Amino acid sequence: MPSNPFRNSLPPTSSLSDAELVEEIRSGNRELLNELYNRYASKIYYKSLAMVKDASQAQDMAHDIFVKVATNLHKYKGTADLSFWIYAITYNHCLSYLLKAKRLRFDPIKEAFSHADEGDLELTEKVVRDLQLTQLKKFIKKLKPNEEIILLMRYQEGMSIKQIASILQIGESAAKMRIARVRNRLAKRFKELEHE
Amino acid sequence: MSKKSKMQLLLEAPFRQLAKDRRENNELPAELRRDIFRTLDMIDLSEDGEGSSFDESDETTKDFMESIENPDDEATADGTYYMEEPTDEPTFDIKEMDDSIDGSEAESYDS
Questions:
Q1: Sign of torsion, CA A155 A66 A102 B22?
Q2: Which of A3, A20, A36, B15 sits at 20 to 30 Å (Cα–Cα) from A108?
């Protein structure tokens, strides 16, 4: 009876979990880097584009980040989702670039979060409820890169305060405070836009 | 399981729409795949099959990469973090990320 050539084959690569995919690549199946590319390259590129604002630069960033991910997969311990691990590397890489290019500056900030930093949450909620995409785009153009990045982390990616703090390498209180301050500015700016 | 704060829900929808808009208006560069795999092939050839790390000389990056995963950090291991393509419909049933770290504080700050 002829042997089944598919007996020892992997399931379709698209059905592999991220953990299985990483394990296969680590075991030497480098063909599966293509699947890793299919899953994450576009996400890396668009995140980079959101941060560096230039398509050509974002392409260079995405190239370097993916190569960094691929050649450091042995460091991925599996205690966090692969998506978070890759995302953290993406942010770290772009932040390093922006810092070196002097387009980004994180001012020292006091660690303790006070209720004064919350602003008027009720008012902010009311304002944010009616936020339109065009208004958000206008607002984001007015933000400093570090302010935009922290909002993207929190509200586009749904990252926790702890995750944001670990990527920015700041304290959790500082991360909370920065988010609250930018959010309050968003509400204030939105009100101004209404009158423009 | 705590729910996402109202502020989180309100802001996620437009921010995810922003991501969708960015994707729709900017194509992924066609040559990105080719360039990446060309670099990976070059690294392979130069390494003689021995494992190495791109950018290993960058100590800051190296330290960062090794610190991303903290075995005690349940917030990053609970499967709630998402990096999926944003959809038109916000997914409100995702567990609040702050839940596993300081959910009560997050609620008071964010809602």
A1: negative
A2: B15
**Is the CB of B20 inside 8 Å of chain A's CB atoms?**
no
Q: Which residue of A has its CA nearest to B34?
A: A63
Q: How many CB pairs under 8 A join A and B?
A: 195
What's the CA gap between B72 and A79, in Å, rounded? Answer: 9
A62 Cβ contact list (under 8 Å, min separation 6): A41, A44, A45, A48, B32
Examine the pLDDT at A139 and tell me if it is beyond 60.
yes
Task: Give the pair of three-digit tokens for residue A37.
Answer: 């590319």
Exposure class string for A91-120: b at 16+ Cβ within 10 A, else e: bbbbbebbeeeeebebeeeeeebeeebbbe
- pLDDT confidence tier of residue A191, bands split at 50, 70 and 90: confident
What is the value of pTM for the model shown? 0.71
The partner residue sitting opposite B36, judged by closest CB among A37, A72, A74, is: A37
* Max Cα-Cα span within chain B: 55
